[in-house]
Amino acid sequence: MTSQRSFLAANWKLNPVRMGEAVDLARAIAKTARACAERVEVALFPPFPWLPSVARALDATGIDLGAQDCYWERTGAFTGEVSAAMLSDLCEWVIVGHSERRQHFCETDETVNRKAAAALAAGIKVVLCVGENAEQLDAGRTEAVVEEQLRAALRGLDPKLVASSLVVAYEPVWAIGTGRNAEPAHAGRTMGLVRTVVTRESGAESVRVLYGGSVKADNVTSYVELADCDGCLVGGASLNAEEFSAMIEAVAEAGE
């Protein structure tokens, strides 16, 4: 672990449907997050439309706000896109390269790199996602796939910004939303590889590494206690305030 505080990032994906629900969820999570702030850093990643409202709900709580994606061009004729420059006045973080973006929206290693570069240039911190699918896992290609994704994503990025403003989330695709979480030993080996590759490819002396994939309150400590794990990127469990609050408390206790 490279930081005294573990990092829990809540990716709400395409949820919730109503703005009021998003605000209520943020406020409920904030109660626990504030109490555990000395040991756990928390960031919420709601859908684009809810960013301003959730930002107001989180005001003065110490909880960060992030977007789930961005576009690399600053402005232009790109209907439906939201640029990193636009997000810079709204939030501190952005997720790039999530497997659902790669799978459903045809993102490539090249576009992930362009998004990461644009976000860092705009002063936004990046959660960069990498991970293998089930077929690649079964073929024993986890390390090769993760290294390839990292090398492409890091190409040309400023080492100082990588060290200060980029977090890598190892999210095995076969574990996302499936209820099948990776064995801690597998996750630990892969996160160790992530740290090695980032240092070698970017020149950054340190980087924070997260695990993501069916993380819940009853298994989160098995990851954050790993030597190379700095926290978790949480999906479905973060939509339940009681469950996510229990995760925050569990991680805080593990860090004592």
Quick take:
The chain is of the alpha/beta class and 256 residues long. It has eleven helices and eight strands.
Q: Could you describe the 3D structure shown?
A:
The longest helix is centred in the C-terminal third of the chain and has 19 residues, at 184-202. α7 (142-154) packs parallel to α9 (184-202). With 256 residues, the protein is an alpha/beta fold. The chain is globular, with a radius of gyration of 17 Å. The protein has a single domain, classed as TIM Barrel (Alpha-Beta Barrel). It has an eight-stranded parallel β-barrel with strand order 1-2-3-4-5-6-7-8, surrounded by six helices. It has helices at 19-35, 51-57, 84-87, 99-104, 109-121, 134-138, 142-154, 159-165, 184-202, 220-224, 241-254, and strands at residues 6-11, 40-45, 64-67, 93-96, 125-130, 166-170, 208-212, 231-234.
Shape: globular
Low-confidence stretches: none
Task: Name the helix and strand elements from N-terminus to C-terminus, one letter apiece.
Answer: EHEHEHEHHEHHHEHEHEH
CATH architectural label? Alpha-Beta Barrel
How is the quaternary structure best described?
Answer: single chain
In percent terms, what proportion of residues is strand?
Answer: 15-25%
Overall pLDDT, averaged?
Answer: 96
Distance between the termini: 14 Å
Question: Keywords, please?
Answer:
single chain; 256 residues; alpha/beta; TIM Barrel; eight-stranded parallel β-barrel; 11 helices; 8 strands; globular
Helix and strand arrangement:
Blueprint: E1 6-11, H1 19-35, E2 40-45, H2 51-57, E3 64-67, H3 84-87, E4 93-96, H4 99-104, H5 109-121, E5 125-130, H6 134-138, H7 142-154, H8 159-165, E6 166-170, H9 184-202, E7 208-212, H10 220-224, E8 231-234, H11 241-254
Parallel strand pairs: 1-2, 1-8, 2-3, 3-4, 4-5, 5-6, 6-7, 7-8
Helix pairs in contact: 1-11, 5-7, 7-9
